[in-house]
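FORM 7B - TANDEM STRUCTURE REPORT

SECTION 1: FIRST PROTEIN
SEQUENCE AND TOKENS:
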Amino acid sequence: MPETPAYKRILLKLSGEALMGDESYGIHRPTVERIVDEIAEVVQLGVEVAVVIGGGNIFRGVAPAAANMDRATADYMGMLATVMNALALQDAMRRAHLVSRVQSALNIEQIVEPYIRGKAMRYLEDGRVVIFAAGTGNPFFTTDTAAALRGMEMNVDLVLKATKVDGVYTDDPRTHPDAMRYKRLTFDEAIIKNLKVMDATALTLCRDQKLPINVFSIFRQKALKRVVLGEDEGTMVHV
């Protein structure tokens, strides 16, 4: 019996740290390939997939030098790091025979396409994975906010926040073994309890547009597929 996805179009928010594997910084190729395999499984179900990628794994290596740097300059450096990650992700997808396109909020046309909403929508409709790089293209905004913004612009059904933890907990499960995972949360609960689902700007944007967020672990095998099939995986944040 064929599996029926619960969502037609999703946006996956991948942190740069998710690409590091067990390394302290940089890109761990086997980890990237495993993530691509997870995305490919979802695409094969007929789900349209957009990705917003962070840059922490690369920027971490230069963060000490950027400590006293002008904030806007440091943020632009972080945006460029996301472009590098997007290219690495696209290359892994190419080798996995998964067609993808990178669009950047910063204009670097020799390397990647500029962000054009109409083209991105057509790519998704054609079954291509669209990777959004360079955040919102503006300093002082996180890639969480970029994920919320692109999710709304692409009319996705769900934003998925990929983390190292399998959901949102009452406390840090690494230091509090008795911490309980929330299966469902409202946006207001997440904001009032300061549960660090996403930054406040991203949460507020998704709440106002009634765009649900699922927080799950990208390191749990087939977790992405289980979320897309509507199973109890991670934490669902909703209105």
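SECTION 2: SECOND PROTEIN
SEQUENCE AND TOKENS:
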Amino acid sequence: MVDELKVFTGNAHPVLAQGICDYLGIPLGKAEVFEFSNENIFVRILENVRERDVFVIQPICSPVNKSLMELLIMLDALKRASAGRITAVVPYYGYGRTDKKDQPRVPITARLIADLLTVAGANRLLSVDLHAAQIQGFFTIPVDELTALYILSSYFEDRALENLVVVATDIGISKRARDLAERLNAPLAIIEKRRVGNIDKAETLNIIGDVAGMRALLFDDEIDTAGSLVTAVAALMENGATEVYACCTHPVFSDAAIKRIAASPVKEVVVTDTIPIPKNKSNEKITILSIASLLGEAIYRIHSGLSVGAMFE
């Protein structure tokens, strides 16, 4: 059955796509995906995909709008090439934070992206740690949401840090942080914070739980500007934490995130490669874990008609 499986990628994260193909033991599909001088994107699929089971690997990451358009145009090209089933593999779902109307006259862009992917030709979505659970319900096609929780927890299990407390960076992520705490057999603390308007700035208000004299492990789904991370690290140190580590699934690392992390007393920031981290954004404090095998196994199971949920049982 693997002979009927095809994996393609745009320009957002070809290294991850190749890692997935290496796990599956198949070559990466051949396609032209480039931008004309007028900024129009052109796609040409260079292999026969008629009635094939096709997967397109493309996180919606920087440059976000270009990555999104590449994905949409690739889906359309595959649909018009009579692919049997097209699965959009979106490790990082951009615009996922705009998932509800929390102010008057604002969009729900995460729902708009769902509509665009479906209209473009996706028959299925495969993603990792969506920012909000309700995004699954924005789709009328099947959605498989994987989690990097087990990859992150295994790393820290191997580290065997003593006297550890898991700290959710806000109340919204507390359920996933609780799951991590259970796997690490550690207590849970929560940082209560309030975001200021539409700017990327958050005010830390309070720490719920005891962190004094303990090693703290901050947990979030993504790190963007690292402003919240740095503020949280400072608050934990002020409340008596001896060391602070951090982990997340999606390393967005926009703006001055890397400089903030480098200047912060945080010991280590552990992330996955749902988003590529260029060399100019690397830092000795940052540890990158691969999710290629996680996505590769999920793709194999979807293609073979096996349970994806069984991967986490």
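SECTION 3: OBSERVATIONS ON SECOND PROTEIN
The chain has two domains: 2-146+292-312, 149-289.
The chain has a mean pLDDT of 94.

SECTION 4: SIGNATURE
Preparer initials: ____
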